[in-house]
Amino acid sequence: MRLQSTHVDTRHLRELLADGNTAAAAELAFALTPTELADLLVRLGPTELALLESHLGTERIADAVAELDPSEAARLLVRFSRAEAADILEEMEPDDATDVVEELGEGEAEHILAEMRSADAEEIRELLAYPPQTAGGRMTPDFVAISPGLTVAAAMRLIRAQAPDAETIYYVYVTDRYNRLQGVVSLRDLVLAEPRQLIADVMRRQVIHVPAAADQEQAARLLLDHNLLALPVVDYQGRLLGVITIDDVADVLEEEATEDIEKLGGSQPLEEPYLSASMFQIFRKRIVWLLVLFLAATQTSTVISIFSLELEHVVALSFFIPLLIGTGGNVGSQIVTTVVRAMAVGEVRFTHLWRVLGRELVICLVVGLVMAAATMIRAGTMNLDLGIAVSAALAALFIVLWAGSVAAMLPMVLRRLGLDPAVMSAPLITTFVDGTGLLIYFLIARAVLNL
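The chain above was modelled as a monomer; its predicted structure follows.
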């Protein structure tokens, strides 16, 4: 319903702008949430945006831009004048603004940064120095830091002064004169403490923190595992650089989950929303893996050619080829998806290899027996020879066990080798099990039918 109302508002608002009734259009836009306003802004042209910005104000526009994907926000930002774009970035949180600037062309980014206040531009340049997928690239430098020698009363006065520019004040970090992280004190602890107490007596000295070079997913998991609202980021000397807040973690986990899902499908992840990506970009992300898997899949045709004489003598064996290779691939994909997800959330590590393998073999034994029974029933409905039915049923059992064994171990082995299990596991399992499953089938058929 919200999207529908936004569409109606957009059409009516554009009509008001076209008629020169900018005040009425701005009043309509003020009624929208930041997310709805962002959906509206991306539909407007440069002239309409300029008119609306003059009435809505930069802060309101900045709140809406922050709701967009960085690549989409960058495309919207260049529709404003460079001065207007600079004003919008200044109103955004530094980490959000940095994400948008990273998506701008280098030349355009420098032009817009040159229009900004020097302090704000310098903050963004410092954040740009960190790779975007690291804790440093995700942090915001807007935090509250105090000295351990302050009293609680003095600290509260300082917090009140810094709070309007800080992204969070629920945690107040304690640093020494070299800006090295010494401790943390929550706002709750400060409120409950005696005004004359020193911060050094109130603060907690064991602070969960993360290096700036750490992967963003590692930082997100650390924050969630310890139920924190913010996580301090430090350099190699222990100096406090910034904080990652809980709202940043939601974005990180969404990005990582999207990336893993795309990789599990055998495609390199897109760097921008699907509808914003060009068809050539999507093609380029998919074609490499498809060609690799195509070459790997030639093993299936090789196996069939090797056992071509058996197929000529017993044509009915070919009836079960699609069923068996499909079953093996499906079982492998199910297990790989489960194991990769468990690895991603830290539930499974390489040390659990044999435990995972044992569990999956027991499960696959039961699954294999069920599939074998189903295969026998199917062979019976086709009035096939008992030997063919037994061959297919045994093959179903052993293919399920084989697929389960490979799928249980492959992701952890790939991770151990420094490879990405998400991008390689599911496509490789399906392709590998197709060929090896057929080999198992024909070897069993050869033994049972004395071919």
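The chain has 22 helices and six strands.
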